[in-house]
Structure formats: C-alpha cells, structure tokens
Amino acid sequence: MVLGEARLRITVELGYPSDIGAQCAAVRREVTERLRTWAGMDVPDLAVSVERLHSVHSRHMDQERVR
Q1: What is the dihedral of CA 45, 51, 56, 57, to 10 degrees?
Q2: What is the C-alpha to C-alpha distance for residues 3 and 40, in angstroms, rounded to an integer?
Q3: What is the three-class DSSP state of 37?
Q4: Is the pLDDT of residue 66 over 60?
Q5: Alpha helices of the chain — where are they, by DSSP H?
Q6: Residue 40: phi, psi to the nearest 5?
Q7: CB neighbours of 8 closer than 8 A, spacing ≥ 6?
Q8: Gap between the terminal Cα atoms of the chain
Q9: In whole angstroms, what is the distance from residue 39 CA to residue 37 CA?
Q10: What percentage of the chain carries pLDDT values higher than 90?
Q11: Could you report the per-residue pLDDT of 10-34, keeping only the tens digit for each?
Q12: How far is 12 from 45, CA to CA, in rounded Å?
C-alpha cells in the first residue's frame, strides 16, 4: 500500500575511478526501495548529486600519512 509520495535530493561522496552513473542509479534504487518499504511512500523524483570523488590512491596516501 502506498501512503504518499516524496521528492528527494541526496548528496553523496563516491569512490573514483568507478562507474559514477551506475553508483548514482544504485543509490536511487536503494533509497526508493527503503522509502517504499519503511514509510509506504513512492519516490517519483530523486536527484542524486555527487559532492566529492575520492580516489583509491589518495585514500591510501592519507592513511599512510596518519601513521
């Protein structure tokens, strides 16, 4: 049973290099599914914005600097 609709905007940080489009699509699917399951709401409009990309190389370098 659907109780209503929600329009959302989500900002994410993603790993890079990767398929950014596929990651954003996965976020849309996950959020849509959870809202439908938990709140009984459809999400006809979900905007996913990428705020920052994190490279695997820079994350590794940051960890080494902390040591």
Answers
A1: 160
A2: 5
A3: helix
A4: no
A5: 20-39, 56-66
A6: 65, 35
A7: 31, 43, 45, 46, 47
A8: 52
A9: 6
A10: 63
A11: 999 999 898 999 999 999 999 999 9
A12: 16
**Number of Cα atoms under 13 Å in the Cβ half of residue 33:** 6
Residue 61 and residue 67: Cα distance in Å, rounded? 10
Q: How many helices (H) and strands (E) does the chain have?
A: 2, 2
Q: What are the structure tokens assigned to 63, written together? A: 């960890």
Helix, strand or coil, per DSSP, at residue 10: strand
Residue tagged 């849309």 (tokens): 28
DSSP β-bridge partners for residue 53: 14
Residue with structure tokens 């990309």?
53
User: 27 near 48, Cβ under 8 Å?
Assistant: yes
Question: Which of 36, 41, 48, 42 has its CA nearest to residue 10?
Answer: 48
At residue 2, does pLDDT exceed 90? Answer: no
